[in-house]
């Protein structure tokens, strides 16, 4: 299947899962899973930075439209996309990334994928939750929300790698 078609389908499916199912899951107000970030995480290494930022903006905006959150997801997604090249550079494998591969458990191993995901998911969630609260008055509560939501999101992301993306 064409890569553009695959990514478009992934975009639509992840936004649908997020707004139809996961936005309705809130356990004690502390766990909010955001699986739509998988779209940004799985874009090919060769994706130009400007395309990455534009796609991330539209991804976040799509979630914002259905969630009525006024650009919070769009800004958090763009922040995550901005950090992605730096995280990839920091986690770079010895010989560099193979041409035509995409980030994933099966190409670069579980440890690499987990470090990659945890860095970007924590950045996304921190940005999102601090924008949502827009103050440091309840710092401990916000940090607990970030940690619990990131843990639940990471669990979903890693599980999806093993269920959907087989070798």
UniProtKB/TrEMBL annotation:
<dbReference type="InterPro" id="IPR007227">
    <property type="entry name" value="Cell_shape_determining_MreD"/>
</dbReference>
<feature type="transmembrane region" description="Helical">
    <location>
        <begin position="143"/>
        <end position="165"/>
    </location>
</feature>
<keyword id="KW-0472">Membrane</keyword>
<keyword id="KW-0133">Cell shape</keyword>
<keyword id="KW-0812">Transmembrane</keyword>
<keyword id="KW-1133">Transmembrane helix</keyword>
<feature type="transmembrane region" description="Helical">
    <location>
        <begin position="12"/>
        <end position="45"/>
    </location>
</feature>
<feature type="transmembrane region" description="Helical">
    <location>
        <begin position="105"/>
        <end position="131"/>
    </location>
</feature>
<protein>
    <submittedName>
        <fullName>Rod shape-determining protein MreD</fullName>
    </submittedName>
</protein>
<keyword id="KW-1003">Cell membrane</keyword>
<comment type="similarity">
    <text>Belongs to the MreD family.</text>
</comment>
